[in-house]
UniProtKB/TrEMBL annotation:
CC cofactor: Zn(2+)
Enzyme class: lyase
EC number: 4.2.1.109
Binding site for Zn(2+): 98, 100
Gene3D superfamilies: Class II aldolase/adducin N-terminal domain (3.40.225.10)
Protein species of origin: Acidisoma silvae
Entry similarity comment: Belongs to the aldolase class II family. MtnB subfamily.
Residue ranges of domain Class II aldolase/adducin N-terminal in the record: 12-202
Record pathway: Amino-acid biosynthesis; L-methionine biosynthesis via salvage pathway; L-methionine from S-methyl-5-thio-alpha-D-ribose 1-phosphate: step 2/6
InterPro entries: Aldolase_class_II_sugar_metab, Aldolase_II/adducin_N, Aldolase_II/adducin_N_sf, MethylthioRu-1-P_deHdtase_MtnB
Listed name of the protein: Methylthioribulose-1-phosphate dehydratase
The UniProt record lists the keyword Membrane: no
Function (record text): Catalyzes the dehydration of methylthioribulose-1-phosphate (MTRu-1-P) into 2,3-diketo-5-methylthiopentyl-1-phosphate (DK-MTP-1-P).
Pfam families assigned to the protein according to its UniProt record, in alphabetical order: Aldolase_II (PF00596)
């Protein structure tokens, strides 16, 4: 495969994931970004500024792990470095997904002092079968303050990630969710589980 050209099956998987995220209302306007690991320290990622519900395979471009575009003339997602960070840390991760849902945005804005949301007692936590085998557990979902400076934001996230303190993903305050998985579908299922958890947590807090 020539440098800069993403294998079609990988691009098609990311296009389909973008369509699903759009159908669920998780990527309003041009928000969100999606990526998949390629061989040799490279990845496929959405180019910057496209609507994720209307992605075409040409909108999926190739970048290296420093976030540099290998597809001539195409600008990668503004948040590429956050994807690079996950791939560089864990060789078994094959896809990273990011969306801007209402639950992720509303809950993190409603908790301006919180550095994590503690999710406890939920069966669906078992979607992270690598770290959770029972509902009888409390899992921390870090909330990191949003920042437009990606190297600085990545540096802030690094200790959380390295120390295993973001076992199911993280949320950027007022911004959105980052999740990852072994491949695009695995990451998508986890995004769905996390969206369910945050929506449920909002409902639960209304009832107590
Ligand atoms: C529509 S504003 C959203 C962006 O600022 C950003 O947070 C985002 O998720 C999409 O950026 P992009 O560069 O298209 O990958
Ligand atoms: Zn974003």
């Amino acid at each position: 495969m020539a440098a800069g050209i993403v294998p079609l099956p990988v691009a098609e998987k990311l296009v389909a994931a973008g369509q699903r995220m759009d159908r669920r209302g998780w990527v309003p306007a041009t928000s969100g970004n999606l990526s998949a690991r390629l061989s040799g320290d490279r990845m496929a990622i959405t180019r910057s500024g496209v609507h994720k519900g209307f992605l075409e395979t040409q909108d999926i471009i190739e970048v290296d792990f420093a976030g540099r575009s290998l597809t001539p003339g195409m600008k990668p997602s503004a948040e590429t470095l956050l994807h690079c960070q996950i791939y560089a840390l864990w060789p078994d991760i094959g896809s990273v997904l990011h969306g801007h849902s209402i639950p992720a945005t509303a809950l993190t804005m409603a908790l301006p002092e919180a550095s994590a949301i503690h999710l406890q007692g939920y069966e669906i936590l078992k979607a992270w079968s690598n770290v959770v085998s029972t509902h009888d557990i409390s899992v921390a979902l870090p909330i990191i303050d949003n920042d437009q400076d990606m190297p600085r934001l990545a540096a802030q996230l690094q200790p959380w990630l390295e120390q295993g303190r973001a076992p199911i993903g993280y949320v950027l305050r007022g911004h959105g969710i980052y999740v990852w998985g072994s491949d695009v579908n695995a990451a998508l299922y986890r995004l769905e589980a996390l969206e369910f958890l945050l929506a449920t947590e909002i409902e639960r807090r209304k009832l107590v």
